[in-house]
Amino acid sequence: MANGLAGGCACGAVRYRLGSAPMFVHCCHCRDCQRQTGSAFVINAIIETERITLLSGDPAPVAMPTDSGHPHEIYRCPACQTALWSDYGGRPALRFVRVGTLDDPAALPPDAPRTGPVTWCAASSPGMPTTMAFTSAATRARSG
Question: What is the pTM assigned to this prediction?
Answer without folding.
Answer: 0.76
